[in-house]
Amino acid sequence: MYFTDRGIEELVDRRGEETLTIEGLADAMRAFVDVHPEFEVAIERLATWLARPDDDPDL
Question: Model pTM greater than 0.85?
Answer without folding.
Answer: no
